[in-house]
Design brief:
It is a single chain. This protein is α/β, with parallel strands linked by helices. 42% of the residues lie in helices and 17% in strands. It has 15 helices and 16 strands. It has a 9-stranded mixed sheet, with helices on both faces. Helix 4 crosses helix 11 and helix 9 packs across helix 13. The radius of gyration is 22 Å and the shape is globular. The N and C termini lie far apart (55 Å).
Length: 388
């Protein structure tokens, strides 16, 4: 009521819904319909980590492109239930299959691939939250590295036509466990593909930055902090990131996989990097509120600087190698990234598995640094089992 607004019991942020797309301040990326359809229409498609932020949006886009069957693979029961319940309204012919399954289990993957005669796989299953992975090293390595190995090997054994690995800008000159495990997952896919490239397989990697409103994004956190009246907490005033909407990211992943000739690393054009501080101010203003600072002491929301978190960078990069090559899509670039022969890589991966089995975190860290020469951790081991 008007009286509630006048008395201050209801604010404009209770009424006004923030439009996430407004935060980018740029035109949306228009998809190429032919590329979207190439590996999906009338194909049997499987998404690992189907209940996650990227995985679930991929599923939303895929089901609209008329696959013959869409298989949702997810280890988290509630996440799987949630995305299946949402997608089943698109499904008039019972072509969505939900599987409670671990993407680290190669034998189970092979059974799934064989049973459903899968054509295309999007491997999104991963741990992506930087501070959490810093504190849970073995889980991060197992989920990010060994699931990629299992998916890639199963794909070769069952002759999957197309496999796309979802990677991250944090894989470039990584400073944290999440980033270095994503780089090793890239190396695994590159190495396995090069060893088997004459088998009519198409493996590719898509690397991109932060996705607006995904589970690991600052956006949901800032939104909740604004609803509570602040303060917004920010680690550093100069932290800068690349952003795109979750719909853009999913559509570009599909299109990049369609462009691939095999073994490619693709980068998505994410526009200019955005300062998180500016993003926070923009969110405050788009919510109909004002920034509280020394110049405006009567403002609504304050921004509090808390200091960089373990493993966090001020700036992220998308490239390891020289300038990327253009592709037929204006927003997708190809990068010629260095890789390790799988015979050499697998020796170190086996060692790492042994270290994980005995929770030897110091040797795991040493092994990670050996595999990724650009890995420069900016903190000591923070894993809870190491600190006891």
């Amino acid at each position: 009521t008007i009286s509630e607004i006048v008395d201050g019991r209801v604010t404009i942020s209770d009424i006004k819904d923030l439009n996430i797309d407004d935060l980018l301040n740029r035109d949306k990326v228009k998809p190429d319909i032919n590329l979207l359809h190439k590996n999906i229409k009338n194909k049997i498609v499987l998404v690992t980590g189907a209940g996650g932020s990227i995985g679930s949006e991929l599923c939303r886009q895929i089901i609209k492109l008329k696959p013959r069957k869409l298989i949702l693979q997810e280890l988290n029961e509630f996440a799987l239930y949630k995305i299946y319940e949402e997608l089943k309204f698109y499904d008039k012919k019972k072509k969505i299959i939900s599987l409670l399954s671990d993407s680290q289990d190669q034998e189970n993957l092979e059974i799934i691939f064989e049973t459903f005669k899968v054509n295309t796989v999007y491997h999104t299953a991963a741990y992506k939250h930087v501070p959490l992975v810093e504190e849970n090293i073995c889980a991060g390595v197992k989920n990010n590295v060994f699931s990629t190995l299992a998916v890639a090997k199963a794909s070769i054994n069952k002759k999957i036509s197309n496999l796309v690995l979802i990677s991250s800008d944090k894989a470039v000159r990584p400073t944290n466990i999440m980033g270095v495990t994503k780089r090793i997952s890239e190396l695994c896919l590159q190495g396995i593909y090069q060893k088997n490239k004459n088998k009519n397989l198409n493996f590719s990697i898509v690397r991109f930055g932060n996705v607006l409103d995904s589970s690991g994004s600052v956006i949901p956190k800032f939104r909740e902090q604004i609803k509570k009246g602040g303060p917004i907490t920010l680690t550093h005033k100069e932290v800068t990131r690349y952003f795109m909407t979750i719909k853009e990211a999913a559509q570009l992943v599909i299109q990049a996989g369609a462009i691939s000739k095999g073994g490619d690393v693709f980068l998505l054009d994410m526009g200019d990097p955005i300062k998180i501080y500016d993003l926070a101010i923009n969110m405050i203003q788009l919510s109909g509120l004002s920034l509280r600072n020394p110049q405006n002491k009567n403002g609504d929301i304050e921004i509090m600087i808390t200091g960089l978190r373990p493993g966090e960078k001020l700036f992220e990069e998308l490239l390891l190698s020289d300038l990327p090559e253009k592709t037929i899509h204006p927003k997708i670039y190809k990068s010629n990234e260095p890789f390790i022969k799988f015979e050499k890589l697998s020796v170190e991966i086996d060692k790492m598995e042994n270290y994980i089995n005995v929770n030897n975190l110091e040797m795991i860290l040493e092994n990670l640094q050996k595999l990724v020469t650009g890995f420069n951790p900016n903190n000591n081991i923070l894993d809870h089992t190491f600190l006891k």
